[in-house]
Write a structure and sequence with these properties.
Blueprint: H1 4-12, E1 30-31, E2 37-41, H2 46-51, H3 58-71, E3 79-82, H4 96-113, E4 117-121, H5 123-130, H6 136-139, E5 144-146, E6 149-154, H7 157-161, H8 167-183
Parallel strand pairs: 2-3, 2-4, 4-6
Antiparallel strand pairs: 1-3, 5-6
Bound molecules: iron/sulfur cluster.
């Protein structure tokens, strides 16, 4: 049976797409295998590429604040990953072929962790898991079923940091929905 550590090792050696060429290291994911809550973002940025830890820049700090304030959790109690494990150069959007190449790793992570709630952060992870082309603004506000987990789409923290009106409050609402499902 596969383990998270085994898959992480595969990712460490992965050259399935061209993102392997310029990465410092892949960013597999971090947190507890027993997590009730899993966050899925888009791709590692510069800090993540340097350290190998997901969501540690400004977006990660906002995620930590929301986790604490809305769910009374710290990140060690959940699991955080991205749909592509290697940093796209200059933080460009991941290409479809890169997303397709990397997708099996995320699928295995989800199968092993089996979180009660998945929160997708932003358009890319939301579109991938919901198999839709519709943007986050239209799909958020509802809870979806994903392989036995409740999927709650919300904005990427970077959108809140850009100061878009209402985004932060919408994210808080979505985090509170996750809390209701996890704690009943
Ligand atoms: S992004 Fe994913 S598929 Fe591409 S090289 Fe990195 S681990 Fe492999």
């Amino acid at each position: 049976m596969e383990t998270l550590g085994g898959i992480a090792q595969e990712v460490l050696e992965c050259t399935k797409c061209s993102l392997s060429k310029k990465r410092t290291q892949p960013v597999f994911g971090a947190g507890s295998i027993n997590a009730d809550l899993m966050f899925i973002g888009e791709a590692p940025g510069a800090e993540e590429d340097r350290t190998g830890i997901p969501f540690i820049g400004r977006s990660g700090k906002l995620l930590d604040v929301l986790l604490l304030e809305e769910l009374n959790m710290d990140r060690s109690m959940c699991y955080i990953s991205n749909i592509v494990k290697c940093r796209p150069p200059e933080n460009r959007d991941p290409k479809q072929e890169e997303i397709d190449s990397c997708r099996p790793y995320l699928k295995k992570q989800l199968e092993l962790i089996k979180p009660k709630v998945i929160i997708t952060l932003g358009n890319f992870s939301t579109r991938l898991l919901l198999e839709t082309k519709t943007g986050i603004t239209k799909v958020r506000g509802r809870i979806y079923e994903y392989s036995g987990s409740s999927l709650i789409p919300t904005f990427h923290p970077a959108a809140a940091l850009r100061g878009r009106k209402g985004v932060l409050e919408d994210m808080r609402t979505d985090f509170r929905k996750a809390k209701e499902i996890i704690y009943g």
